[in-house]
Amino acid sequence: MIARRRLLSRLPGGLLAGLAAASPPRAARAEAPLSGAAALLWEALRQRARGRTLRFHLTIQDPGLERFLGWFAATLSGRHGLELEVVPLRDEAEAAARVAGGEGVDLVALDMATLSTLRRRNLLLPARSALPHAPLPLPGMPEADFGTPWHGGALVLVHDAARVPEPPASMLALPDWARARPGRLAHPPPRHALGAAFLLQALYELVPHPRILASPATERNFTLLTAPFWEWYASLRPLLWRQGQDFPEGATALRRLLREGEIGLMPALDPVALPRLVGAREWPAASRVHALGRGSMAYAALLAIPRNAAQPEAAMLAADFLLSPEAQAMLADPRLLGRLPPPSPRPRPEAVLTTPPPPDMPRLPEPHPSWALRLREEWERRMGLFAQ
């Protein structure tokens, strides 16, 4: 009892450090439950979280995700006495603004570039190492302890085969393809994770070697290595939907344009979801996934807890449940979502529960987040110049 009181007394100021220090080695966690000090600390956290309301901020661009969140909310309430309030976001820019503004964010889903920005501003808690189900950190992820991957994706092109029987073989071929079919391609702005992934996929095909993008972008190498990319984009932009003067706000808007026949080709990050979204009439019946020749860029969706979260214990409990084999199996179920497992340095023991990508879809590693940040800033600067 005395030992338990001491552990409880450490929670307000030393919760994260105590949990991280008391947890078993990460490789053993999936095979054995927590025990000893780690189990006591985690149980104390559960008790502190009970009865709280957790505000989870994320973008919702898929009706399947809404159903998953309904299951998630019911499970948290039934097992842990936690109430979940889902706060939909427009894009990554709004996610960053909400966290920076202290707008009641307890748990937030981010892309790697946005997480990197918030980490540099000291706005996130280093919670990953304290979560029992957290996977090993991603290689090359500079802020590994401040964000935990909860699902993955892969950049592909989706085309309506009834209108576009032959999609382009690569991103480099897109301008020629679009020249023969002006207005039939659209992509979101890069403040959306999907828009950033579309631009990064093209950058991958235009740099001399993919390994270059694993290192941080600097003023010098960004200017030098993206020069061919901006030439490529300048040739493509006037051929986009609405002459590249307007950009659909996310995957939901893109699917509507494809469904209504305004476009014939769009980027996507969820290749396994095609049958479900066709069945739900989100995509046309003749929709097909097209993987790009050099490989599809991997994408990691991350969970983070703001430093000023009102309910950090509830956020840790919810984040850890999202990483559990049970929740990962629900995320991977193609009937519900069909999300790819997050990129990992080695397979996790529960990886058998997840949905693998199609066998002909090699995945390129996600670039260092500094490339996405600089690409987003430069794209917005150039679009502002075009609009003047």
From TrEMBL:
<dbReference type="InterPro" id="IPR006311">
    <property type="entry name" value="TAT_signal"/>
</dbReference>
<feature type="signal peptide">
    <location>
        <begin position="1"/>
        <end position="22"/>
    </location>
</feature>
<feature type="compositionally biased region" description="Pro residues">
    <location>
        <begin position="355"/>
        <end position="368"/>
    </location>
</feature>
<protein>
    <recommendedName>
        <fullName>ABC transporter substrate-binding protein</fullName>
    </recommendedName>
</protein>
<keyword id="KW-0732">Signal</keyword>
<feature type="region of interest" description="Disordered">
    <location>
        <begin position="336"/>
        <end position="368"/>
    </location>
</feature>
